[in-house]
């Protein structure tokens, strides 16, 4: 159904700037995960300077292929009217946040769902605003579904009561729906007040809700594997047909929704040009508890979507190379070099028809190795930290290695998220490690409660 949906005339696709073109543009290497896309000479000619505009069925096919491979990003030229959108706000015991949000979405059709607040919430009287109430709290998923059932417009924007959309957010996101295969679009979630102490500055840079500056397709197993339901826009009929949010889930229900839509053949987009500000929890206890709560969501997700919540994801040979190198022994170094050499030779054969196949293979192998080392370090400090901690207590050798990993991974993460006026590296690494401890504690607790270790398993590819 969606896999064959034709892009409309005028729709554009721009090649991602990180993609590399070879053989006169007939071979593109990029995307996440990295892949090689081969194009016919006629298709390569359509792309020209890195942009293809849909003008007929042939350009529509090429544009769709670029989007689905992850090497191209959409540049829509038309958008639905804002009158086609209903804003649904699930809220419980947050009248101040609701008042602030209602002021930001004035002029739009709004449905507020009071999910059993201790004191029933009220809202300003206006024709475009309705307030529905659950007499007892049923959770945010149920509140969103109640609003979904009450909406009649083609699109529904879900906004939590602790967010404030920035100017232009809606128009930027709506443009993506000119692609009939797109079912969900999410903005970048930034901090409402970024400078409230060290923890607030860390959360500004590394919030679990902020998925970064790069636009992306939302796909399981990719850098943007899901988007948070704090702020999303969906096609109402698609979400209704999919069953809405899973009301049995009180955490990670947004991740589950993203993956169910993906499994049904729909496309999802992350649009960081659109900003929605979030009132982050920056009191330490609330912050730590929330991070642990997020970790508990991995077990139910792993149960519903087997293999989609890995602690690490890489080939067996790359995992061997990373672990061997991490051993910091002469034998480990030899094993790592041997494994990487085999990987590079295999890639060289794959790229034999291109110019400089050895160089391309070497660069991709080095990138994969660096990414693998980062995954191993991250998993040791985050997903497996209880095991890592015990091993470090028992073995001085392991302790030195773990300390090195913890500092290096934290600094690498700081470098990728640094901003002018942001947190210094030392305090950033400190909070990053606490962030990981909280998430890891929730992850293990969730696995124990569910009696299912699937969320603790890596994904080893052939």
From TrEMBL:
What's a single GO MF annotation on this record?
A: transferase activity
State the Gene3D superfamilies in the record: Spore Coat Polysaccharide Biosynthesis Protein SpsA, Chain A
Q: Outline the extent of the Glycosyltransferase 2-like domain.
A: 86-238
Residues in coiled coil: none
Q: Which InterPro entries match?
A: Glyco_trans_2-like, MftF, Nucleotide-diphossugar_trans
This chain belongs to the protein called Uncharacterized 55.3 kDa protein in thcA 5'region
Its source organism is: Rhodococcus ruber
Upper lineage: Bacteria, Bacillati, Actinomycetota, Actinomycetes, Mycobacteriales
């Amino acid at each position: 159904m969606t896999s064959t949906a034709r892009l409309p005339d005028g729709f554009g696709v721009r090649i991602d700037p990180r993609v590399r073109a070879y053989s006169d543009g007939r071979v593109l290497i990029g995307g996440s995960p990295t892949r090689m896309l081969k194009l016919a000479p006629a298709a390569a000619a359509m792309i020209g300077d890195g942009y293809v505009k849909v003008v007929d069925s042939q350009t529509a096919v090429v544009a769709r292929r670029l989007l689905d491979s992850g090497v191209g990003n959409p540049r829509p030229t038309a958008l639905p009217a804002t009158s086609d959108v209903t804003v649904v706000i699930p809220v419980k015991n947050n009248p101040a946040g609701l008042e602030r949000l209602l002021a930001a979405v004035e002029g739009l059709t709004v449905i507020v769902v009071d999910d059993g607040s201790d004191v029933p919430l009220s809202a300003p009287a206006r024709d475009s605003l309705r307030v529905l109430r659950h007499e007892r709290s049923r959770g945010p998923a149920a509140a969103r579904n109640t609003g979904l059932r009450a909406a009649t417009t083609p699109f529904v924007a879900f906004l939590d009561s602790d967010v404030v959309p920035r100017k232009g957010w809606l128009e930027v996101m709506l443009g993506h729906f000119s692609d009939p295969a797109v079912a969900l679009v999410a903005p970048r979630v930034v901090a409402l007040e970024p400078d409230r102490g060290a923890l607030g500055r860390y959360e500004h840079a590394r919030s679990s809700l902020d998925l970064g500056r790069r636009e992306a397709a939302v796909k399981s197993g990719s850098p943007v594997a899901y988007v948070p339901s704090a702020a999303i826009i969906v096609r109402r009929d698609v979400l209704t047909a999919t069953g809405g949010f899973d009301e049995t889930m009180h955490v990670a229900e947004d991740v589950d929704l993203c993956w169910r839509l993906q499994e049904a053949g729909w496309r999802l987009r992350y649009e960081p040009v659109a900003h929605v500000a979030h009132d982050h929890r920056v009191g330490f206890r609330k912050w730590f508890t929330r991070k642990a709560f997020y970790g508990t969501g991995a077990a139910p997700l792993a149960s519903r979507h087997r293999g989609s919540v890995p602690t690490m994801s890489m080939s067996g040979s790359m995992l061997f190379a990373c672990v061997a190198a991490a051993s910091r022994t002469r034998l480990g170094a030899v094993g790592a070099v041997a494994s990487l050499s085999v990987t590079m030779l295999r890639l060289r054969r794959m790229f034999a028809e291109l110019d400089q196949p050895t160089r391309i293979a070497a660069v991709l192998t080095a990138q994969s190795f660096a990414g693998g080392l980062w995954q191993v370090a991250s998993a040791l400090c985050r997903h497996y930290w209880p095991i890592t901690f015990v091993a470090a207590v028992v073995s001085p050798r392991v302790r030195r290695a773990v300390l090195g990993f913890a500092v290096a991974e934290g600094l690498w993460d700081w470098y990728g998220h640094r901003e002018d006026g942001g947190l210094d590296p030392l305090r950033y690494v400190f909070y990053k490690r606490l962030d990981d401890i909280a998430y890891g504690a929730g992850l293990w607790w969730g696995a124990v409660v569910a009696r299912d270790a699937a969320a603790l398993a890596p994904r080893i590819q052939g």
